[in-house]
Amino acid sequence: MKEMTQIENSQERKATYVTQEAHRLQEEGTLAVFKVKAMLHNIHGDWDKKKLDVNGVVWHVKDSEQQNEETMKGEQESQFTGSKETETKKTRIVTKEAHGFPRRDGCALIPLGGPRGYICGMFRAACRTRGWNRRGSKYFGTLSFIDNGGFQITPQWVAAEKDAEIKMRPFFVQEAKGEIYFEYIEKVPVEFAVSVMQNHLPKDMTLQLIGDLERLAIGPKRRGTLKIESIQKT
Q1: pLDDT given for residue 40 in this prediction
Q2: Is 197 a member of any domain?
Q3: For labelling alongside 199, which of 56, 103, 150, 227 has CA 20 to 30 A away?
Q4: The CA-based dihedral angle spanning residues 220, 223, 228, 232, taken in that order and rounded to the nearest 10 degrees
Q5: Does residue 59 register a pLDDT over 80?
Q6: pLDDT at 4
Q7: Which residue range is the domain that position 213 belongs to?
């Protein structure tokens, strides 16, 4: 038992922290970082599902009634024509599904970063549009590079300005066979960073993909757009 204790103590003394070394290797393995400033237009909310009570029309009837009257005064005859319209409507409170923005400190959050965020999703779409997923392309392997963490997009959640006006409107969604309401913001400035690992793909790959962000729709059901204001490489 004493010998086992001495061995365990010896192993503990030999253990060292290599956290800083791991961070250094990560930095050395980074090819470049692109800092992007952009403006999102018509971006819709998601990730926060809720129920919304709205007025639904059960039935709506509009009636039109026309009247003709003739009168005689002595030898003179006069005619009167008139119309009357009545409208009846019955409404009912209906519960609808709504998709909204998650909130942090009262600010709407938009999932631009992370491996499953909007930016990486747009990068994948751009690869397919350009045909980079086909063998023979000099960019072949870019999709695997994205899927395996070659790009790191930060922050994962970008917060909209606190005074951003959040609106809501319904859309008919085929899969749901009915209306689903979505929160949306007409215009919101965003900033994010694209960190690229060292790789053997063409050097212009990342800049082409970032530029393609302006050509693709973004967000739920691809209803939003993104306009780049500046790109800084470090």
Answers
A1: 97
A2: yes
A3: 227
A4: 10
A5: no
A6: 57
A7: 30-43+102-166+185-233
Residues near 234 by beta carbon (within 8 Å), at least 6 away in sequence: 32, 33, 34, 35
Choice among 76-80, 108-112, 115-119, 137-141 with the minimum mean pLDDT: 76-80
CB 109 within 8 A of CB 158: yes
For residue 173, the model assigns a pLDDT of 75
**What's the CATH number where 108 sits?**
3.30.70
The mean pLDDT of the chain is 85
What is the reported pTM?
0.74
Number of domains in the chain: 1
Whether the pLDDT of residue 198 is over 70: the answer is: yes
199 is written with which tokens? 């790789």
Token pair in block for residue 76: 């003179």
Residue 110 included in any domain: yes
Residue 19 confidence class, pLDDT cut points 50, 70, 90? confident
Q: Tell me what pLDDT residue 227 has.
A: 97
Judge whether 199 lies within some domain: yes
3 state SS for the chain: CHHHHHHHHHHHHHCCCCHHHHHHHHHHCEEEEEEEEEEEEEEECCCEEEEEEEEEEEEEEEEEEEEEEEEEECCEEEEEEEEEEEEEEEEEEEEEEEEECCEECCEEEECCCCCCCHHHHHHHHHHHHHCCCCCCCCCCCHHHHHHCCCEEEECCCEECCCCCCCEEEEEEECCCCEEEEEEEEEEEEEEEEEEEECCCCCCCHHHHHHHHCCCCCECHHHCEEEEEEEEEEC
66, part of any domain: no
